[in-house]
Amino acid sequence: MILIPITNKIPELEIAVNAAIKAGETILDIYDGNFRTTTKTDDSPVTDADFKSNEIIKKILSKTNYSILSEEDIDDPKRLSENTIWVIDPLDGTSDYIDKTGEFTIMISLIKNNEPILGVIGWPTEKTLFVAQKGSGAFRYSNNEWTKMSVSKISDLSLCRTVGSRHHLTDKEKNFIKKLGIVNFTSIGSSLKVGKISSGEADAYITTTDKMKEWDSAASHSIVHEAGGKMTDMLGNDISYNNKDVYHHNGILVTNGLLHDKIVREFKKL
């Protein structure tokens, strides 16, 4: 077991890290072979790896007896009456998995009273983990060592390093980024966009889509917040979890915190 550098860690954190590692190992085994790809009712792709990862994570998390909201399961409404639940995306970046870019992750978060109290993101191809617990900071595990994560200090939009989706970037988003005067833009798959911001390697992630759901953001939310950054919807409203409607209808804005209000202000002008 990897020793997490958080002194007051809650037991669920080690369980989540273990689940991310085990699921990651299986995903990589499938990745190197021939896997089946099908299309869901919303036209998004799904692979054998999504389902296998889901199965492994659920089995490991089940010892906590909390309900699990997962991208790959039918939603059980009984979670709405519980104050603590797991929210998971067993394979975030399925399109990148299929395209073999290596930029796919596993996302696990524990939600208490509608907010994330821990987040774990596994990046299997790089044997990397992003881990956070509320009030205890965010940490990155790579090359067999832990480093504390913190966001950048960039506050000038013209210097802002922006990351965005490789597969879902819209013309509306491109035009808005241009309007902000941002010239430094990189396309990255999955939740690695927020990993970059939390590590201080990028400064903002802007998406105006209404298709993102709770499992797309919960683990990232915890990590970027503990790294000193900020995540809201595009209008600057707080994001809550364990809702009946799991969609984020007003997009998502993730920044180092210093750029946040400037981007929200410009977006509201639209």
List its salient traits.
single chain, 270 residues, alpha+beta, Fructose-1,6-Bisphosphatase, Chain A, domain 1, D-Maltodextrin-Binding Protein, domain 2, 2 domains, seven-stranded mixed sheet, five-stranded mixed sheet, 7 helices, 14 strands, globular
What does this structure look like?
The chain is an alpha+beta fold. The chain has two domains: 11-148, Fructose-1,6-Bisphosphatase, Chain A, domain 1; 157-269, D-Maltodextrin-Binding Protein, domain 2. Helix content is 30%, strand content 27%. The chain is built from seven helices and 14 strands. Strands 3-4-5-6-7-8-9 form a seven-stranded mixed sheet, with helices on both faces. Strands 11-10-12-14-13 form a five-stranded mixed sheet, sandwiched between helices. Helix 1 packs antiparallel against helix 2 and helix 5 runs parallel beside helix 6 (214-226).
Report on the biggest sheet.
7 strands, mixed
Shape: globular
* Mean of all residue-level pLDDT scores: 97
Report the order of strands and helices: HEEHEEHEEEEEEHEHEHEEH
Radius of gyration: 17 Å
* Intertermini distance: 49 Å
**CATH class categorisation of the largest domain:** Alpha Beta
Please report the total strand number as a whole number.
14
Number of helices: 7
Can you tell me the residue ranges where pLDDT is under 50 for at least 5 consecutive residues? none
**In percent, how much strand structure appears in the residues?**
25-35%
CATH H-tier superfamily of the largest domain? Fructose-1,6-Bisphosphatase, subunit A, domain 1
Query: In which range does the helix fraction lie?
Result: 25-40%
What count of domains describes the coordinates? 2
Which strand order spans the largest sheet, edge to edge or round the barrel?
Answer: 3-4-5-6-7-8-9
Structural class: alpha+beta
CATH topology description of the largest domain = Fructose-1,6-Bisphosphatase, Chain A, domain 1
Architecture of the largest domain in CATH? 2-Layer Sandwich
